[in-house]
Write a structure and sequence with these properties.
- 63% of the residues lie in helices and 0% in strands.
- The longest helix is centred in the middle third of the chain and has 22 residues.
- It is globular, with a radius of gyration of 15 Å.
- The chain starts with a helix and ends in a 20-residue tail after the last helix.
- The mean pLDDT is 90.
């Protein structure tokens, strides 16, 4: 079984419908590659951290030291 298929199955077990699970798996792999390049770490390590966030987030937990990205400014509808 391919890595993306394994991730999709994990996302399904966490409650995502099959189509959405496949999209989520592709996004996780892409982001893991981006993080690995940005931080100079192995792709597997980046993917491990992302999966930890996904699983803990599903359980309603926030990992220690997690800092969410800043929200974009809201435009005023004037």
């Amino acid at each position: 079984m391919k890595e993306q298929e394994q991730l999709a199955k994990l996302c399904e077990r966490l409650g995502a419908p099959p189509g959405q699970a496949a999209v989520m798996a592709a996004q996780l792999l892409k982001r893991a590659e981006q993080i690995a390049l940005e931080r100079g770490i192995p792709r597997e390590q980046a993917l491990e951290k992302l999966l930890e966030l996904v699983v803990r987030g599903h359980a309603g937990e926030v990992p220690e030291g997690f800092v969410p990205p800043p929200r974009p400014p809201r435009s005023s509808g004037a």
